[in-house]
UniProtKB/TrEMBL annotation, chain A:
Superkingdom, taxonomy of origin: Bacteria
CDD domains, per database record: TPP_PYR_PFOR_IOR-alpha_like (cd07034)
MF terms in GO: oxidoreductase activity, acting on the aldehyde or oxo group of donors
Protein name: 2-oxoacid:acceptor oxidoreductase subunit alpha
Keyword Oxidoreductase belongs to the record: yes
Keyword Oxidoreductase listed: yes
Residue ranges annotated for the Pyruvate/ketoisovalerate oxidoreductase catalytic domain, each copy included: 24-212
TrEMBL record, chain B:
Keyword annotations: Oxidoreductase
Annotated SUPFAM superfamilies: Thiamin diphosphate-binding fold (THDP-binding)
Lineage: Bacteria, Pseudomonadati, Bacteroidota, Flavobacteriia, Flavobacteriales
Keyword Oxidoreductase in annotation: yes
Entry protein name: 2-oxoacid:ferredoxin oxidoreductase subunit beta
Length: 617, 336
C-alpha cells in the first residue's frame, strides 16, 4: 500500500500544500480547513482556489480538476506560492494536471483506489504513473483512501455509499494535519456546526478525519511531521478573508463612516459575483442591492442612486466594464460619486473567465468616448481589497467623480489573514452633500482646492437642478455648446482628477531607496514581486528596490523623483505592457524595461528572480 | 406630508431654459400638461425627478423646474430605478420615446415593467426617429418610407401596449398628443398609482412623420375613430354616442346602439382593475376605433414593498447593528 521513495525534508519556514481532485471531491473545503486551522495556530497564510469554468465537468476529466493551494508560514507569506511541497491528488487527472508544480524530491499523496484503468484513460495516461517509474523524482505516498474510508465508516448508520465515498477528503485532511502537527479541533467544531441537524454526518466526517490522522501516525509514513511555528504577526484580532469579501466589507465600512446608504447595482459575472453575493446578505445594514437585467442597467441604476444621494457602486469584470463604458462617461460628465469595481480576468472578449490577468488597465483609463478621466486605483492583496474599496468610496465622495477599483481573480478569490479594522479607526469621509441653498449656489459650483462640485440631491428644496450628458456650462450646468466652455470644462475635469494626487499617499519604495534596479508592479502582483525582491535582498542584493502602485490615475506625486533614483527600471505586469506605457507617456525618461507574462497565470518566484538577476548582472 | 405642500401653479414647474422643439410639436402639449398636472398631485417640487434617455422627448427634464437627469440612450428606466430605490419618497418620471425605449432600451423597458417599481413612464410614440433625422423606428409601419427605408420599411412594428402587457405592466394608458385635458388627468392618475405606470402618447412629428395619427386624432374624425375608456363606464363612443363595443366570441366588435336590438345594456363596461389582461390586450390591439384612456390599472405589490418587507425581516433576525459587529463575528482569532 505504501511505497517509500526518495525521502526529503520540507522547509520549516513555509510550506505549500495543494489539494486536487474532481470538482465534487470537496477540495475547496479541505483546503479552507487546512488554511483556517493553520491561521488560528498563528501562521501567516495565503490561499488560492483554482477551479474549472464548467459547473460540473465530467468526473475524472483533465479539465474538471478542482484545486486549492495553501501557503502557510512561520514568516510572512505574500503569495499562495508557486511551487508545491505537498500535492494531495484524489485522482489521476489531478496528478497529471498538477505534477508540474511539485518540487522535485517532494511529496505526493494519492488515493490509489482512484487509479483505475477507466480513470487513467480519462486522464489520458498511457501507463499508470504509479507503476511506470515516471514519479521517481518524488516521494509518492500511495494510500487506499476510498477503501480505508469505507472501512472506517462501516459501523456508522444512516450513510449511503455516496456519502461514504464523498467523505474521503476528510481522510486526506487528517493525514495532512498529522504531517504538519495541526490540531483537528477547529475542523471538528466546524463539522458540528455545519451538520448540527445531521448527527450521522458529524460522526462520519469526524471518524474519517481521525482515521486519516491515525493512519499517518501509525504507519509512520513520514519520518517526522513538520512543524511550522507561528509567524510574527502584528498583534490583534484576525480572520481569514477572501478578496471579494474584503472588497464588499470595505464598502460597508465606507457607507457607515460617510453616513450614507450603500447601493449596489450589478449583473453577475465571474469572478466579480461574490461581491454581490456578499453584499446582498447585509440588508440589516440597509444595503440596497439590485440585480439588474444587464451590465448597463447595473451601472445605470447606480448612477440613479448616486444622483439621489446613496453611496453607489457597481461591480463587474472586464467584458462588463466594456458594456458599462457609455454610462461611466455619463457619470463622469455628471460629476457624481460612483465606484466601479472591475475584478479583472483574462481577456479579450470572453477570454479566460477563471484565470487572472491585468489587461483591463487601459480600458479603465481610456475605455470611453471623448476625454473622460476618472480615478483608477488597484488593490494588491486579498486583505487590502478592504482598504482600497474604502478609499475608492472616499475618493469618489470627496472628489465627486467615478472611481474605478481594479482587483483581479487572483486576489479576489484568494484568501489571507486580515487584521480586523474597526470602522472607528478608518479615515474620515466627508461627502459633498448639501441640504440647503445659499446665495452663490449653482449646480456646478466647485471647491477651489479639489474642483469637486457640491452634491445636491433630490428632496431638498431650492436645489432643484438638471444634469445630463450634454456638455454643460462651467457654472450653471445648463447645456452649453460654447467652444471655449467645452475646452474649459474638458481641462477642468482633467485637472480635478490630477489634483487627487494631493490626497493620496506618496510612493514608498521598499528594500532600497536608490540603486541599480527598481522593480515596479501594480495591483495583484504585489505578493509575487515583493517575495522575489525580498529574497534577492536577503541574498545580498541591496541595490534592488521595489515600488508598487495602487494609485494609477492620478499617479503619486513623487513618482518621477523616485524613478530617477534608479539606474534601471523594470515594470512587471500580467499583460502585454499597459502600465509601462502609462509611465512612458507621463515621464520623460528613456529605458523603461518590461517583464510581462500573459498566460492567465500569476508570476512565479523563479522566473522573477532569474529576470532580476539578469538585469543587475 | 401632502397637506403641507404649497399651492403651485403650472408656472412653478417651468424652468428658465428656452424650450427648443420644432414649432407645432406635440411635445409642447405634453410639457404643458405635465406642468398643469403636477400642482394637482400634491407633491413637493423638490420631490419630483424627471429622468430621460436620448431623443427629442428626452430634452424634457431641462424644461421642468424640478430635479432632472438627461441620461443615455435607452437607459432611463434603469437610472430611474436607482433613483427610486435610493429614495422612495420621490415622485420619479421617465421620459422616453419609441426609439429610446423600444429599440436601444427595449431590455430595460420590459424589465422595469416586470418589477413593478413605483415609477411613471411617459412614452412619446411618434413612430419615427426624430433627433437622428428621420429613420424608421420599432413602431414604424411596414412599407413606411423613411431616410433609412427609402423603398419602404420591411420590419413589422411593436405595439407598445401589447409589449407592455406581455411584460406584466399593471398600468397602461394611451392618449392622443392633441388631447391635453385628458392627458393632464391621466398624468395625475399615473402618479396616484403605486407601481410602474406607462402612458403612451400618440405624438405627431411635424417634420419627419407628420400626420401619422391624423386618421385618429383629427377633429373631424376623433370621436368616431377613438374610444376613450373610463373605469366602470360603458365602452361607448361616436360623435352621437351611438357606438359601443361588445364581445362577440373572442373578438371585440363595434355595434350601433339602437340597431339590431342592441341597447346600452349590451355594451361592455370597462374594468381597468381586472387582473387578467386578456380583454385589456384586445382593447390595445383594436384598430378601428383605437382605444385611449386608462386601459389597465391593476394594483399589485411593488418592488420596493417587497424589498422593504425583506429588509425589515432580515433586520429583525440580525444581531448586527454596525459593521464592526459583522467584522468581529464568526471565526476570528487573536494574535498576541
Amino acid at each position: 500500500m505504501i511505497k517509500e521513495k526518495k525521502p526529503s525534508t520540507a522547509s520549516l519556514e513555509t510550506v505549500v500544500v495543494r489539494f486536487v481532485g474532481d470538482s465534487g471531491d470537496g477540495m475547496q473545503f479541505t483546503g479552507t480547513q487546512f488554511s483556517d486551522t493553520s491561521a488560528m495556530f498563528g501562521n501567516d497564510v495565503a490561499t488560492f482556489p483554482n477551479y474549472p469554468s464548467e459547473i460540473r465537468a465530467p468526473q475524472g476529466s483533465l479539465y474538471g480538476v478542482s484545486g486549492f493551494q495553501v501557503h502557510i508560514g512561520s514568516i510572512e507569506v505574500r503569495t499562495p506560492g508557486d511551487e508545491v511541497d505537498l500535492l494531495v491528488a484524489m485522482n489521476p487527472a489531478g496528478l497529471k494536471t498538477n505534477l508540474y508544480a511539485v518540487k522535485p524530491g517532494h511529496t505526493i499523496i494519492v488515493d490509489v483506489d482512484a487509479f483505475t484503468r477507466k480513470n487513467l484513460e480519462k486522464a489520458e495516461y498511457d501507463n499508470n504513473p504509479l507503476e511506470d517509474g515516471s514519479l521517481e523524482n518524488y516521494r509518492v505516498i500511495e494510500v487506499a483512501m476510498t477503501t480505508l474510508t469505507k472501512e472506517a465508516l462501516k459501523d456508522v448508520e444512516g450513510l449511503d455509499n455516496k456519502s461514504i465515498v464523498r467523505s474521503k477528503n476528510m481522510f486526506a485532511l487528517g493525514m495532512v494535519y498529522w504531517m504538519y502537527n495541526r490540531s483537528t479541533e477547529h475542523t471538528i467544531e466546524f463539522l458540528n456546526k455545519k451538520f448540527s441537524a445531521k448527527p450521522h454526518l458529524i460522526e462520519a466526517n469526524t471518524k474519517v478525519l481521525n482515521a486519516g490522522l491515525f493512519f499517518a501516525e501509525t504507519l509512520e509514513l513520514i519520518p517526522n511531521s513538520y512543524n511550522i511555528l507561528p509567524a510574527k504577526m502584528v498583534s490583534g484580532t484576525y480572520r481569514i478573508i477572501m478578496g471579494n469579501t474584503a472588497t464588499a466589507w470595505g464598502f460597508l465600512a465606507a457607507a457607515e463612516k460617510s453616513g450614507l446608504e450603500l447601493f449596489l447595482g450589478s449583473y453577475p459575472i465571474t469572478p466579480a459575483s461574490d461581491i454581490l453575493h456578499e453584499l446582498v446578505k447585509h440588508k440589516h445594514f440597509g444595503v440596497k442591492t439590485f440585480q439588474a437585467e444587464d451590465e448597463i442597467a447595473g451601472i445605470s441604476s447606480a448612477i440613479g442612486a448616486a444622483f439621489a444621494g446613496d453611496l453607489a457602486i457597481t461591480t463587474t469584470s472586464g467584458p462588463g466594464l466594456a458594456l458599462k463604458g457609455e454610462a461611466l462617461g455619463l457619470a463622469m460628465m455628471l460629476e457624481l460619486p460612483l465606484v466601479v469595481v472591475n475584478v479583472q480576468r483574462g481577456g479579450p472578449s470572453t477570454g479566460l473567465p477563471t484565470k487572472t490577468e491585468q489587461s483591463d488597465l487601459l480600458q479603465a483609463m481610456y475605455g470611453r468616448n471623448g476625454e473622460s478621466p476618472v480615478i483608477v486605483i488597484a488593490a494588491s492583496t486579498p486583505a487590502n481589497c478592504f482598504n482600497y474599496a474604502y478609499m475608492a468610496a472616499k475618493l469618489a465622495l470627496e472628489h465627486m467623480t467615478p472611481v474605478i477599483l481594479l482587483t483581479d481573480g487572483y486576489i479576489a478569490n484568494g484568501s489571507a489573514p486580515w487584521k480586523i479594522q474597526s470602522v472607528n479607526d478608518m479615515p474620515e469621509i466627508k461627502s459633498k452633500i448639501i441640504k440647503t441653498v445659499d446665495d452663490n449656489w449653482s449646480p456646478y459650483r466647485r471647491d477651489n482646492e479639489t474642483l469637486a462640485r457640491d452634491w445636491a440631491v433630490p428632496g431638498n428644496a431650492g436645489l432643484e437642478h438638471r444634469v445630463g450628458g450634454l456638455e454643460k456650462d462651467f457654472l450653471t450646468g445648463n447645456v452649453s455648446y460654447v467652444p471655449e466652455n467645452h475646452e474649459l470644462m474638458t481641462k477642468t475635469r482633467a485637472e480635478k482628477i490630477k489634483r487627487v494626487e494631493n490626497h493620496i499617499p506618496l510612493l514608498q519604495p521598499e528594500f532600497a531607496d536608490e540603486g541599480d534596479l527598481l522593480v515596479i508592479g501594480w495591483g495583484g502582483t504585489y505578493g509575487a514581486l515583493h517575495t522575489a525582491v525580498k529574497q534577492l535582498h536577503d541574498e545580498g542584493y541591496k541595490n534592488i528596490g521595489f515600488a508598487h502602485f495602487n494609485y494609477i490615475n492620478p499617479l503619486p506625486k513623487n513618482t518621477e523623483e523616485m524613478l530617477n533614483r534608479f539606474k534601471k527600471i523594470v515594470v512587471c505586469e500580467l499583460n502585454n505592457g499597459q502600465f509601462v506605457n502609462i509611465l512612458r507617456m507621463n515621464f520623460n525618461r528613456c529605458g523603461f524595461l518590461q517583464y510581462n507574462k500573459i498566460q492567465g497565470l500569476p508570476f512565479g518566484n523563479k522566473e522573477l528572480i532569474k529576470k532580476f538577476k539578469e538585469l543587475v548582472a | 406630508m401632502e397637506t403641507s405642500v404649497k399651492k403651485y401653479t403650472f408656472k412653478d414647474f417651468a424652468s428658465d431654459q428656452e424650450v427648443r422643439w420644432c414649432p407645432g410639436c406635440d411635445d409642447y402639449v405634453i410639457l404643458r400638461s405635465m406642468q398643469k398636472a403636477l400642482p394637482e398631485m400634491g407633491v413637493k417640487k423638490e420631490d419630483v425627478v424627471f429622468i430621460s434617455g436620448i431623443g427629442c422627448s428626452s430634452r424634457f427634464p431641462y424644461y421642468m423646474e424640478t430635479y432632472g437627469m438627461h441620461g443615455i440612450h435607452g437607459r432611463a428606466p434603469a437610472i430611474a430605478t436607482g433613483v427610486k430605490l435610493a429614495n422612495q419618497d420621490l415622485s420619479v418620471w421617465v421620459i422616453t420615446g419609441d426609439g429610446d425605449s423600444l429599440a436601444i432600451g427595449g431590455n430595460h423597458f420590459i424589465h422595469v415593467l416586470r418589477r413593478n417599481i413605483d415609477l411613471n413612464i411617459i412614452l412619446f410614440n411618434n413612430k419615427i426617429y426624430g433627433l437622428t433625422k428621420g429613420q424608421f423606428s420599432p413602431t414604424s409601419l411596414v412599407g413606411q418610407k423613411t431616410k433609412s427605408s427609402p423603398y419602404g420599411n420591411t420590419q413589422p412594428p411593436f405595439s407598445a401596449g401589447e409589449l407592455a402587457i406581455g411584460a406584466q405592466a399593471r398600468f397602461f394608458a394611451r392618449i392622443a398628443g392633441n388631447n391635453p385635458k385628458d392627458m393632464t388627468q391621466i398624468f395625475i392618475e399615473a402618479h396616484k398609482f403605486k407601481g410602474t405606470s406607462l402612458i403612451e402618447v400618440l405624438q405627431n412629428c411635424v417634420i419627419f412623420n407628420d400626420g401619422c395619427y391624423t386618421s385618429y386624432t383629427d377633429k373631424e374624425v376623433k370621436d368616431d375613430k377613438q374610444i376613450f375608456l373610463e373605469h366602470g363606464k360603458p365602452m361607448i363612443f361616436g360623435r352621437n354616442r351611438d357606438k359601443g363595443l361588445i364581445l362577440n366570441g373572442l373578438r371585440l366588435e363595434v355595434v350601433n346602439i339602437g340597431k339590431n336590438g342592441i341597447t346600452g345594456e349590451d355594451i361592455l363596461v370597462h374594468d381597468a382593475h381586472e387582473k387578467d389582461p386578456t380583454l385589456h390586450q384586445m382593447l390595445i390591439r383594436l384598430q378601428d376605433p383605437i382605444v385611449t384612456g386608462i386601459i389597465r390599472s391593476c394594483k399589485d405589490v411593488t418592488l420596493e414593498e417587497r424589498e422593504d418587507a425583506l429588509t425589515a425581516q432580515v433586520k429583525s433576525d440580525s444581531s448586527f447593528s454596525k459593521t464592526d459587529d459583522l467584522f468581529f463575528s464568526g471565526e476570528t482569532y487573536a494574535i498576541k
